[in-house]
Structures are given as structure tokens and as C-alpha cells.
Write a structure and sequence with these properties.
Layout (H helix, E strand, L loop, with lengths): L15 H20 L3 E2 L5 E3 H4 L4 H7 L2 E3 L10 E5 L4 H10 L8 E10 L11 E10 L4 H18 L4 E7 H11 L6 H8 L2 H15 L4 H11 L7 H12 L3 H17 L8 E3 L13 E7 L3 E8 L14 E7 H11 L4 H4 L5 E3 L7 H13 L4 E3 L6 H11 L3 E4 L2 H6 L1 E6 L5 E5 L3 H13 L1
Parallel strand pairs: 1-5, 7-8, 12-13, 12-14
Antiparallel strand pairs: 2-4, 3-4, 5-6, 6-11, 7-9, 9-10, 10-11, 14-15, 15-16
Helix pairs in contact: 1-5, 5-11, 6-9, 6-11, 7-8, 8-9, 10-11
The chain binds one RNA strand of 75 nucleotides through helix 3, strand 6, strand 10, strand 11 and helix 12.
Length: about 450
RNA sequence: GCGACUGUAGCUCAGGGGCAGAGCACCUGACUGUGGCUCAGGGGGUCGCGGGUUCGAGACCCGUCAGUCGCCCCA
């Protein structure tokens, strides 16, 4: 079997039903984001490669889709452009470029595809959409809270009832690692191991830490600092972290921030959903403060985010505070499909009515009838050939269209349209002037 | 990037050296003004690709590409 018609590896075609599902979710996402005062932004699919390199850590550099130099440089294998890897770095570039003209607090949402040269897996692709919200220009924990609240609203509107937002802070993590005696050069690699706690267990994390160069004693101590024992309430975790951190200055600041976020969030939809989780690390290296990840029970991450106060500064002088959240559209769609969470209106058929064509001479009349119905807001598909009526009915049935119109010799003479309801099999002659209203009424009563 | 498994009709898969198959889907008819159900018939294949072994390869061997699942990493 030829494989040449398959899309490129990790890429997907979206057939009509797929597009409807995606559009439904994106409608909800944009509506919620707009309500929080975020404005839309779009950036190019392609960035200069220097814009992206060094922003995502070593693993990130490897996964960037690079575009080779064109023309005479083609043979060198050198890349000067790359496909967008996420939406956060392009945002930082935009902020640096248009700093003078953007509002003091620039709140933007961005829903576009990103590309990663990763190995495709279930719910994971090389081209996928992210739905980002970010707020630039404020260090206030209000930003963290609003961003989490927006994400909570989105998931609730989509019908998710069993998700939590895990919350942690990069400086608290560093403080805990310092306290355990893990050298600073090993912090990043240690966090990757600790992030796997719920996957490989406590002993697995210790093994992994040692494998990554952390001394056995420090590894054990670090694990102890991160492992939640006993009371897992936010209050209890805060208290425990406070004693573990002691007088560590930056970690104490981080803890204050976490406390503020938890307190402020009580006034928002995110309040009951935030769970302080010391083992949350997150991969991207540009986070500097609070970090969060939204997870559905038994499924895993639907998205994440955090504060990155130094990223914009990598494109211009001076630091510009920033914080945001990114929802993974594909993960959301996978879970919603598995759970049958789409409303019937999303999976409905392409048309309300199929206008059958009696014979070649009736084509004009069929088109005129379709126009009449469309003007009334109905979705009408015209059968293009004068096939046998049975064949046209079969087509209507296979397309899931509810009504079919037939204008044969008898109807033509009587000035009526025969309307067949495919769901019941019954049919009714309706005066031509009343067909549109008649059909609209039936369709409305059904969908209501 | 590393390891394991799988590539045969549009889809799901059987066949493991001797004529290329089944179910579903599709098309035609039974049904000259009507879909679903039933019955009868029909079309459809570079057996992923390249090489090798053999009188003979879909099957065995080597390579390659693609897919799936772990590892790694991530949304």
C-alpha cells in the first residue's frame, strides 16, 4: 500500500468533523479570554533561528524545527530560520519590538500552531495548537490569579469537572534544593527528576537523582523535602515549606507570592482548584517565579504556564515582567472525544435539507428552491445530478440530512413541495410559499 | 536519539514457500416517484519500498521507509 498520501509524520489533516470540534473549543477559549480583557495577537510561523535558540534549554534546542538556508548555502546544512516552537518567545520578541506602542499592561491571547521535531505519540504531534494567555508589565500576583481563573473558566465551560491546577514556585524549588545540599549547577537536571515523582515513585526519583550526579545523601534529603506526607492541604504544605526553607531569602519571597496567589484566588473560579505541589517543576527553562500546570484526573497535563520575568529582557535591555498560561488544544480534544463531551450541535450533519432534482429539466427549479430555503437561514445541499430518486435519498440518508425536498410532476402542477423527514420516513406536501417557514419550525423544535 | 512489535483491498484483519482472501464499506439490480432492512451480483491489490535465497517469495534473509508501544522529553 502506498503511503505517499499520508500527511507528513506527526502532521494531521483535519476533516470536516475534526474542524467543527476544534472550532467549538476555540470559540469557548476566545470568548473566555476576551472576557478577561485579553487581546488577540498573531505572529509568523517562521522566526529567525537566533530568536528561538537558547530559550528552551538543551532539549528544546534539539526539538526546534530548523529551516535550512536556501540557495547557494543549501549544501552547508546551516539553518537561519526555524518554525515557531511555542507562543511565549514570539510574544517576548513582539513586546521588545513594539515596547513604545503597546499598552502599559499588555494582555494578549494567541491561538496558533507550533512545531516540534519530537517523536509523535498519543495526543502528541509535531504540529499542534496552543491557546496562550499572557499578561506583560506587572509583577502583581493578581496576574497569576487571573490567568489561572481564565483557564479554569475555559475548562469548566467545556464541561471538565475533575481538574486541578498544580501550583509551585521556581525560587521555592531552588531553596529546597539548596537546603538539601544539591549544588546549583545540578538544579535544572535535578528538577527534571523530581518532576517525575508521581510517575516513577520516590525510590525511582532518588535513583534518577543519583544517576544525574546528585550525591546519595543530598538526593534522599531533596526527596524528603519534596515528598508530601500527611496533610496535603494548601495550608499544611505552606507551613511545611516555610520551615524547610528557613531563612533562604529568595525562597521566602517565593513562598510569600504563593501565599498571596492562594489568598487572592479565593475570589475567583480558580480558588478551589489550586493545589500547592512542591514536586511540580516544569521543563521550560525560562520560568522565574510561580509555575502551574492543569491536569485532569487520570489523564495528565492539559496545559501549563508560569512567570518569566527575564525572557523579554533577552530581546532588549531592561527587564519586563510577564506571566502566562498555555492550554494544549490537542490534549483537550483527545479527552473530550474520549469522554463524549461535545454537544450534539457540534456533530450535527452538514445540511438541514437535501434538495433532490427530479430530472435534468428541473435543475434550475431546484436551485431556485434551494435559494428560497437558504434565504430563510436553512442549510441546503443541492443534489447535482438527475439520478434516480432512490439514489438521491440514499445519499441524503448517508449524509445524515434530516429533510429532503422532492418536486416531481405532481408537485410542480400543484405548486407544492414534497418534504420528506428522513428520521420518521413520513412525507408531507407543503405549498411552495410556506416550505421555508415550515422547515424552519420543524428544525427549531428539534434542536431546542 | 535508544529498544520491542507491526506493515496484505477504502477500513479491520486472515493467509507463515505452490491460483490474492474474509467481514465491513462502495457500486449495480430485485424496487419505472423514495433512504435504512433483506436477497442476488459486481468493481477494487506494485501484499510498504529495494535487493537477496529459491524452479517458484505476500511468506524466508538483508537493507530501507512508515506506523504503534516503552525510554527520553513535552502540550
Amino acid at each position: 500500500m502506498s503511503t505517499s498520501t499520508q500527511p507528513a509524520r506527526g502532521m494531521r489533516d483535519f476533516l470536516p468533523e475534526d474542524v467543527r470540534r476544534r472550532a467549538y473549543v476555540l470559540d469557548v477559549v476566545t470568548d473566555v479570554y476576551e472576557r478577561y480583557g485579553f487581546e488577540p495577537l498573531e505572529t509568523p510561523a517562521v522566526e529567525n533561528i537566533e530568536t528561538l535558540l537558547g530559550k528552551y534549554g538543551d532539549e528544546g534546542n534539539r526539538l526546534i524545527f530548523k529551516i535550512l538556508k536556501r540557495g547557494e548555502h543549501e549544501q552547508t546544512g546551516q539553518a537561519d530560520l526555524a518554525l515557531r516552537y511555542d507562543l511565549t518567545v514570539p510574544l517576548a520578541r513582539v513586546v521588545a519590538e513594539y515596547r513604545g506602542t503597546l499598552p502599559k499592561f499588555f494582555k494578549r491571547y494567541q491561538i496558533q500552531p507550533v512545531w516540534r521535531a519530537d517523536r509523535p505519540a498519543r495526543g502528541r504531534f509535531r504540529e499542534f495548537y496552543q491557546c496562550d494567555v499572557d499578561a506583560i508589565g506587572s509583577t502583581s500576583p493578581v496576574v497569576e490569579v487571573e490567568v489561572c481563573a481564565a483557564v479554569s473558566d475555559v475548562l469548566e465551560r467545556l464541561g471538565f469537572g475533575d481538574f486541578t491546577i498544580r501550583l509551585n514556585h521556581r525560587e521555592v524549588l531552588r531553596g529546597l534544593l539548596d537546603g538539601a545540599g544539591v549544588p546549583e549547577t545540578l538544579h535544572d537536571t535535578a528538577l527534571v527528576a523530581i518532576d517525575k515523582l508521581d510517575k516513577i515513585g520516590a525510590s525511582g526519583v532518588v535513583e534518577e537523582l543519583v544517576a544525574r550526579g546528585v550525591g546519595p545523601g543530598a538526593a534522599r534529603q531533596a526527596l524528603e523535602a519534596f515528598t508530601a506526607t500527611g496533610d496535603a492541604s494548601n495550608e499544611a504544605v505552606l507551613a511545611r515549606l516555610s520551615t524547610q526553607i528557613g531563612s533562604h531569602a529568595s525562597a521566602t519571597d517565593g513562598l510569600h507570592t504563593l501565599r498571596a496567589i492562594l489568598q487572592l484566588s479565593q475570589a475567583t473560579s480558580a480558588g478551589p482548584l489550586l493545589r500547592l505541589d512542591p514536586s511540580l517543576a516544569r521543563g521550560l527553562s525560562y520560568y522565574t517565579g510561580a509555575i502551574f500546570e492543569v491536569a485532569v484526573d487520570g489523564i495528565g497535563s492539559l496545559g501549563g504556564g508560569g512567570r518569566y520575568d527575564n525572557l523579554v529582557g533577552m530581546f532588549s535591555s531592561g527587564s519586563v515582567p510577564a506571566c502566562g498560561f498555555s492550554l494544549g488544544l490537542e490534549r483537550i480534544l483527545v479527552v473530550m472525544s474520549e469522554r463524549g463531551m461535545f454537544p450534539a450541535s457540534v456533530t450535527r450533519s452538514s445540511a438541514d435539507v437535501l434538495a433532490t432534482v427530479w430530472n435534468a429539466d428541473a435543475l434550475t427549479d431546484t436551485l431556485a428552491l434551494a435559494r428560497l430555503l437558504r434565504a430563510a437561514g436553512l442549510r441546503v445541499e443541492v443534489y447535482p445530478d438527475a439520478d434516480k430518486i432512490g439514489k438521491q435519498m440514499k445519499y441524503a440518508s448517508s449524509r445524515g440530512v434530516r429533510f429532503a425536498t422532492i418536486v416531481g410532476d405532481d408537485e410542480q402542477a400543484a405548486g407544492t413541495v414534497m418534504v420528506k423527514d428522513l428520521t420518521t420516513g413520513g412525507q408531507t406536501p407543503v405549498p411552495r410559499g410556506e416550505v421555508a417557514a415550515w422547515l424552519s419550525r420543524r428544525l427549531q423544535s428539534q434542536s431546542a
